[in-house]
């Protein structure tokens, strides 16, 4: 039976610079710390500050956006990776000599966490749905016969995770032809569903619930998977079993959004302090905590303490599951998120949080309003730009409209799929604010300032 191994899975080989020699011994930063820094200073990462996490932005009350969420996920991910490394070193004091990059797992997971939402469009999941539905129920249906079934599968199921891999590796016009040139391991660690769209959407198989790369990036992931020794998924044509570090990235994301959405809901008055306390206390597992909470007069401070304790409990529990299931993880046989495999009391506590989140938070009026508005905006932009870019003979309006699309998103290829993908690169990269402003100007709802 195939088994992955950490020595091959942890590679400093860099996308587009595979032949370059690595010498971490004389550099201030390791190759994986470089990955983290490249992401922090990048434009796509900065744009996350104006992309909706759950609640509308901006507002007089601070709530999380995609950028603050990603930073917090990266912090949790670093802790998960570091705990795993410490456990491995405790079990084998010679591990650093046998697997030199194992000590970098915290940095690798942290970098992957930074980029896990990089491909999400404006307006959260509503933006993804709008892009998909443009092709399934909108005027985009007319392009079905112009693309292959595999290409149509990813157009009709836009996936932010797959878009992140494209952003990081695609040679956009005028940009570095190697994309972000991240290490193979960091790139593999962000792909939660390592298959193409045509093989995804299997609700009974955790690593194929969705998909992780567009048809255009299939050769990219294939190259990364083979270099790292990922196990081929025998049940589908394009699939692989996950890189084990994906589970830590996934756990960091699960921990943060489950807990922190409660904090935001309290700030906005959607949930009372008593409701949040009742949900988080069973997760905290600290017998002294109630006494400490009573000493704090400020409710926000109390919730901050509850949040910190809950996250710590979940980090330790998920790290334990990861360490105890090494064999299954390396054989590609671990078929659930780490959060689903913690002890039953924690699982039940998290289910209670999820139930309240769905009922009270994700269906709150302000959340639904931004989803509906965002859906209209994203769909409206696609209705304008895609037909204009695909036309062989463009009208004057088409030419003027396409002048609004930066040159980096243009493609030299002439096939329909490549051109559609280029427009999706442009529209999916927009912030909430930019998408709304551009939509209003194109539709004549507002006019540019003449000042």
From TrEMBL:
GO MF annotation, one: dGTPase activity
Pfam families tied to this protein: HD, HD_assoc
Domain HD/PDEase: 62-267
InterPro entries the record matches: dGTP_triP_hydro_central_sf, dGTP_triphosphohydrolase_C, dGTPase, dGTPase-like, HD/PDEase_dom, HD_domain, PHydrolase_assoc_dom
Keyword terms: Hydrolase
SUPFAM superfamilies from the UniProt entry: HD-domain/PDEase-like
SMART domains linked to this entry: HDc (SM00471)
One GO term (biological process): dGTP catabolic process
Keyword Ribosomal protein (UniProt): no
Alphabetical list of PANTHER family matching this protein: DEOXYGUANOSINETRIPHOSPHATE TRIPHOSPHOHYDROLASE, DEOXYNUCLEOSIDE TRIPHOSPHATE TRIPHOSPHOHYDROLASE
Name listed for the protein in its UniProt record: dGTPase
Species, as recorded: Parapedobacter luteus
């Amino acid at each position: 039976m195939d088994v992955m191994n950490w020595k091959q899975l942890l590679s400093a080989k860099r996308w587009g610079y595979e032949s370059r020699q690595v010498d971490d011994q004389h550099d201030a930063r390791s190759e994986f710390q470089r990955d983290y820094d490249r992401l922090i200073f990048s434009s796509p990462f900065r744009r996350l500050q104006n992309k909706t996490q759950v609640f509308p932005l901006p507002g007089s009350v601070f709530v999380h956006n995609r950028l603050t969420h990603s930073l917090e996920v990266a912090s949790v991910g670093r802790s998960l990776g570091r705990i795993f490394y410490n456990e491995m070193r405790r079990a084998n004091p010679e591990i650093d000599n046998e697997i030199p990059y194992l000590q970098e797992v915290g940095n690798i997971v942290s970098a992957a966490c930074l980029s896990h939402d990089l491909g999400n469009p404006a307006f959260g999941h509503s933006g993804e749905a709008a892009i998909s539905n443009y092709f399934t129920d909108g005027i985009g249906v007319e392009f079905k016969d112009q693309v292959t079934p595999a290409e149509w599968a990813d157009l009709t199921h836009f996936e932010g995770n797959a878009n992140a891999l494209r952003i990081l590796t695609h040679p956009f016009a005028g940009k570095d032809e190697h994309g972000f040139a991240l290490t193979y391991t960091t790139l593999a660690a962000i792909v939660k569903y390592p298959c193409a769209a045509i093989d995804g959407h299997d609700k009974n198989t955790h690593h194929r619930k969705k998909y992780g790369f567009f048809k255009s990036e299939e050769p990219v992931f294939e190259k990364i998977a083979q270099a790292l020794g990922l196990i081929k998924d025998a049940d589908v044509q394009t699939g692989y079993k996950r890189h084990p570090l994906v589970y830590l990235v996934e756990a960091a994301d699960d921990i943060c959004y489950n807990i922190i959405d409660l904090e935001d809901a309290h700030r906005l008055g959607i949930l009372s302090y008593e409701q949040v306390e009742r949900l988080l206390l069973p997760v905290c597992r600290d017998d002294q905590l109630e006494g400490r909470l009573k000493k704090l007069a400020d409710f926000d401070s109390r919730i901050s303490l509850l949040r910190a304790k809950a996250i710590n409990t979940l980090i330790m529990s998920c790290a334990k599951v990861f360490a105890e299931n090494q064999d299954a993880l390396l054989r590609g046989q671990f078929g659930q998120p780490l959060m689903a495999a913690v002890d039953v009391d924690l699982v039940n506590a998290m289910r209670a949080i999820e139930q309240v989140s769905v009922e009270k938070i994700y269906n709150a009026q302000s959340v639904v309003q931004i989803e509906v508005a965002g859906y209209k905006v994203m769909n409206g932009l696609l209705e304008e730009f895609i037909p204009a870019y695909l036309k062989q003979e463009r009208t004057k309006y088409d030419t003027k409209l396409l002048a609004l699309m930066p040159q980096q998103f243009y493609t030299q290829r002439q096939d329909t799929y490549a051109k559609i993908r280029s427009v999706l690169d442009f529209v999916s990269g927009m912030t909430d604010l930019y998408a709304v402003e551009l939509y209003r100007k194109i539709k004549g709802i507002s006019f540019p300032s003449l000042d």
